[in-house]
Amino acid sequence: MKFMLLVFFISTFAFSAEWQQVSTHExxxxxxxxxxxxxxxxxxxxxxxxxFRYYDIDSDQWFExxxxxxxxxxxxxxxxxxxxxxxxxxxxxATANFLGFVSVSDAQGDSLGxxxxxxxxxxxxxxxxxxxxxxxxxxxxxxxxxxxAQPGSFIVSTDSxxxxxxxxxxxxxxGLTNIEIASNGDIYLGGTNPxxxxxxxxxxxxxxxxxxxxxxTWGQALATDPSDSLRVLFGTQYGLYExxxxxxxxxxxxxxYCYSIAFSSENPMMVAVGTNDxxxxxxxxxxxxxxxxxxxxxxxxxxQDISGLxxxxxxxxxxxxxxxxxxxxxxxxxxxxxxxxxxxxxxxELIPLTISPNPVIQHTxxxxxxxxxxxxxxxxxxxxxxxxxxxxxxxxxxxFHTIPWNTADYPAGTYLIRLVTQFGxxxxxxxxxx
Length: 434
Prior knowledge:
This protein is mainly β and 434 residues long. The protein has 2 domains: 7-330, 7 Propeller (Methylamine Dehydrogenase, Chain H), CATH 2.130.10; 353-432, Macroglobulin (MG2) domain (Immunoglobulin-like, Sandwich). The chain is built from 1 helix and 37 strands. The protein has one helix at residues 299-302, and strands at 2-5, 9-10, 19-23, 34-38, 43-47, 51-56, 61-66, 74-80, 89-94, 100-105, 114-116, 127-132, 140-144, 154-157, 165-167, 176-181, 187-191, 196-199, 207-208, 219-224, 232-236, 239-243, 251-254, 258-263, 271-275, 280-283, 289-292, 306-311, 318-322, 326-330, 353-356, 363-370, 374-381, 387-396, 399-406, 413-420, 424-432. It has a 5-stranded antiparallel sheet with strand order 1-37-36-33-34, with no helix packed on it. The chain has a 5-stranded mixed sheet with strand order 2-27-26-25-24, with no helix packed on it. β26 (280-283) and β27 form a beta hairpin.
């Protein structure tokens, strides 16, 4: 049996884990998918089921926009263009029947200027993310999820969204979830197998960059360090991974399943991560140490994914969006956080994992013990590292647990059982005989 120890140092920060709600759940317009900060115009941009909302920080007011005639339009990504084109906002969307399209506004989103519906004209599936070339705001990028019949697509416009090119390059993830452009112009695409790829020539060619990532890794969140073009954070079902060399290698820096990531543009050493067990983790030293800042988020919020995070340099708050319960922000300035070294509490948890009986004829039990309530991911892999079945993916209470598994549908051979929790992981081999 092999154990992998994951040791994370938890330190106490100056700002308290207190939150206040700034937007409530009130129907379709508040089923939140995405959150970002428009630093130039002092706004928090939020994607919802029916359109998008934005919070004007200066006036402390919410405004919302819908796309006429398209009920159930979901906004999966919203990006502002920044100082080069402060009025431009690009939105990645999907119709009620999951056809992807991109909406471009040149009026700060107050008028959803150009709308390009998907299907044969654009992406055949949900446009999961969009990006604006900060060196040339007329160049727009997007990526779509797979529709099952064909892989996700990489879409490009070089004329501010007037026309789009839909491409299926080799060496990119099958289903695309995230696109990020580093400060040196390199483009990163995250998604399902092979997980993450990189282009250094504006999307013409791609290289798979998965060295150090577990087999079968797929991405849910992606963020580039605004001050270091070679540093990228990649949120996966196996935790948060970091590269400091442009993707040549990856190292895990946080164990929980990561759903969203935010760098502070004012202080890139400040990083926030949202997990799918509704925890908010914050680091003020670039990820060397982390603190659980979930704090007083209400129980109904803590039962939801943290679907979006954003630091605002305008008011200094950290904003979070939950799937169905609203938008929250810290009650004190999050950007002034300093590590006070009040306490250091290393979390060291061995995860005992056994399979009994082993070898297996048809029925066996997968047994494991965790000392702390944790999100648990349990996969069955073949010897090539390919995931053949995800057995478990949920928050589990502390204690001893047994999962029955039937091998009737699997050929004879050797398989790997991989267990990953927030505080450690373990892997054991299993032999199936017929």
